[in-house]
Amino acid sequence: MLMLSSVLATAAPAQPNSFLSVLPMIAIFAIFYFLIIRPQSKRAKEHRTMVNALTVDNEVVFAGGLVGRIKKIDGDYALIALNNNTDIKIQRASVMSVLPKGTIDNI
After folding, report:
1. Of 32, 64, 13, residue with least CA distance to 80
2. Which DSSP category does 93 fall into?
3. Where are the transmembrane segments (predicted)?
C-alpha cells in the first residue's frame, strides 16, 4: 500500500499557471488591436472630421471617382456641380477627399 501511494503522488501532473495559458490570447488581441482596429478607427475619425468641415465651393472627389464643386450643403446631403449644366445631390459621407482650390479648372 505504501508503494502505491508514492506512485500516485509522483504521477500527478503539476498545475499550469493560469496566466500563462491566457497570455497567447492577450497577445493575439493586442496584435489585432494595433494592426487592424486602431488604424481603422483613426481613418474613420479623420474622414468624419473632413466631412464635417466641408463648405460651399470646396472641390471634392467622392465615391465613384466623380469630381465636382460643392454648391449647397443641406444636412447630410450636398449639391455638387459637376460642370456648368449638371448638378447632382450626394450624401456628404460619400466624399472621399477635398481637392486644392483650382484643381477642377486645371483638369
Report:
1. 64
2. G
3. 20-37
Q: What is the full DSSP assignment across 38-84?
A: HHHHHHHHHHHHHHHT--TT-EEEETTS-EEEEEEEETTEEEEESSS
Provide the CA 106 distance to its chain's centre, in angstroms.
Answer: 32
Is the domain spanning 20-99 CATH 1.20.1550? The answer is no
Q: How many CB atoms lie within 10 A of CB 53?
A: 9
Q: What does the pLDDT profile of the chain (107 residues) look like in tens digits?
A: 545 555 555 555 556 677 788 899 999 999 999 999 999 999 999 999 999 999 999 999 999 899 999 999 999 999 999 999 999 999 999 999 999 999 998 88
Question: What are the domain boundaries of the chain?
Answer: 20-99
**Looking at the whole model, is its pTM more than 0.90?**
no
Write the burial class of residue 46 (CB in 10 Å: 0-12 exposed, 13-18 middle, 19+ buried).
Answer: exposed
CA torsion through residues 60, 63, 67, 71, sign: negative
